[in-house]
């Protein structure tokens, strides 16, 4: 197996050196470089062409999120695993949305970290279980909050989901066991509450506001 070329990025020297020592004990991993901030990481990506970048978030000069965005734009084949002590779910969402392949907490056991690096190297993606639960909780909370903000009833949300699936009024009536007239009334109410004029606008707004 060809060795995984790893670039470590963290503003704390002790963490960089400790991780490098631990990861270099694995015969499949070679730590090819250490960077103290996002800007150094970009420079080393240019020079070293690592397979994977293990990226911290909170760093001086250039943070890990912005550095990840630049790395993925310039070298889309380089995989980025975010490693941080910060459990804010917003970071998870943003990092994954810009192309990061993994997101783990620094408290992870070294064996699990090595396993995660290998998993990502083999075309996988990885988010720790605790962060995945937090992300799901945030999404559900946001969805419930927005539903209340727009005053949508549970039935209206069901109809809205059907609209997003491209179902006709007849199909919706059959699926939800409603008359077509009732379906039309629900759709009119949805349009009014969301301040939209048609199915397309309703679907786009619903997805943008995480209502469905």
Describe it.
Helices cover 57% and strands 14% of the residues. With 212 residues, the chain is an alpha/beta fold. It has two domains: 4-134, 3-Layer(aba) Sandwich (Rossmann fold); 151-208, Winged helix-like DNA-binding domain superfamily/Winged helix DNA-binding domain (Arc Repressor Mutant, subunit A). It has a six-stranded parallel sheet, with helices on both faces. Helix 2 runs parallel beside helix 3. The mean pLDDT is 86. Residues 5-121 form the Response regulatory domain. It holds the Pfam family Response_reg. The modification 4-aspartylphosphate is found at residue 56. This is Response regulator transcription factor.
Task: Write the topology of this structure.
Layout: E1 4-9, H1 13-23, E2 29-35, H2 38-48, E3 52-55, H3 64-74, E4 79-84, H4 89-97, E5 102-105, H5 110-121, E6 126-127, H6 129-150, H7 154-164, H8 169-176, H9 180-194, H10 199-208
Parallel strand pairs: 1-2, 1-3, 3-4, 4-5, 5-6
Helix pairs in contact: 2-3, 4-6, 7-9, 7-10, 8-9
Order of helices and strands: EHEHEHEHEHEHHHHH
Query: What top-tier CATH class of the largest domain fits best?
Result: Alpha Beta
Q: Give me the oligomer status.
A: single chain
Please give the radius of gyration in angstroms: 23 Å
- The low-confidence parts are none
The N- to C-terminal Cα distance equals: 44 Å
Could you give the count of β-strands? 6
Please tell me the overall pLDDT.
Answer: 86
The rough form would be described as: elongated
Strand order of the largest sheet: 2-1-3-4-5-6
Domain HTH luxR-type: 145-210
Protein name: Response regulator transcription factor
Modified residues (4-aspartylphosphate): 56
InterPro entries: CheY-like_superfamily (IPR011006), NreC/VraR/RcsB-like_REC (IPR058245), Sig_transdc_resp-reg_receiver (IPR001789), Tscrpt_reg_LuxR_C (IPR000792), WalR-like (IPR039420)
